[in-house]
Amino acid sequence: MNLAARYKITDGHKFPREGAFVFSPNHYSEIDPIVMGMVSWKLGRLPRFLAKASLFKLPVAGWLLQKSGQIPVQRGGSVRGSEPVKAARLLVERGQMVVVYPEGSLTRDPGMWPMRGKSGAVRIALEQGIPIVPAAHWGTQQLMERYSKKLHLFPRKTILVKIGDPIDLAEFRGRNLDTATLNEATAVVMEAITALLADLRDETAPAKRWNPSEHDQKETGRFEA
Known about the structure:
By secondary structure, this protein is of the alpha/beta class. It has a single domain (about 5-215), classed as Glycerol-3-phosphate (1)-acyltransferase. Helix content is about 30%, strand content about 15%. The protein has 6 helices and 7 strands. It has helices spanning about 30-40, 60-65, 80-95, 120-130, 140-145, 180-200, and strands at about 5-10, 20-25, 50, 70-75, 95-100, 130-140, 155-165. The strands form 2 sheets. Strands 1-7-6-2-5 form a 5-stranded mixed β-sheet, with helices on both faces. The protein has a two-stranded parallel ribbon with strand order 3-4. The model has no long low-confidence stretch (mean pLDDT about 90).
């Protein structure tokens, strides 16, 4: 990965060097976990992911996820809600970081801006009482395009990364973690991630965040289907 890309990290000092926290980047390429894992490693932490189980079936990337101790999460069935919570609790007890993509899947936004978020990241942060740190990256699509299985290793790519300030979720702590509260907190996180990406891209993000359900798109799987 070092041969395939150089990583230009802005505000790396905001990345916690110890203690448990949720690390929440944007998501638009299936190789994102490897890229952000590299970023975490370069910043001094061993990353742990709650990643969708299908990623573990990918060649190379899936093998690396398994060998580095990452955690597959099923999208459906009776274990969908309980397993991530159990895994997060164990990681917190060990003082480890956990990477959770709030979007839950690759963004459906045509311009690859962050789409509507899901509540997994903020639920873990609020239930476990740990910080949530947003981040954005841009340039990964040159290494592997959205929904592609093909790596473009040469020439060497440049991936821009920006780390955000820990998000203050104090106003949500102590409240009943119902759907309204979790959605409100998730919106705060998505705003932070989008702002970081806008800085990296030097562009203005769409005024309204992409919502797959408003465009007859499935929440999981390839959005073209």
